What does this fold into?
Amino acid sequence: MTHRELLAFRDSLLKARADLIAAGDFEVRAELDTPVPSSRDQDEAPLVEMSQSIASARNRERGERLAKVDEVLQRISSEPETIGLCAECQEAIPARRLQLMPFATHCVPCQSTAEVNPHGPGRRKIMDYR
It folds into this structure.
């Protein structure tokens, strides 16, 4: 990545970071808005729980995304030569992939290989221990 591309990439990351922070957290409400507390029925409890779960998951995902963006910004400062290169094969990650996922550390083929079996060879069978 050229110096000019790196600066443009950093600027886009800073904008994405600012947008994530400006969006704020999703509200995790303890109850639904009903005019009369006694009008609630048993069907509302799962809806409240589901709403809390969704808001919590969105907040967690937003926090993880923010941490990934911060990590890339740190790498731009400390190891600018690694930005835009696949951590596995050292080939250039396509610019379009970096636009969509600025925190991508692998090219598509290497990422696909890692996702096929992320935890190694898989579950062993009893016959494998002879």
Notes: The chain has a mean pLDDT of 81. Residues 84-130 form one domain. The chain has two domains: 1-83, 84-130.
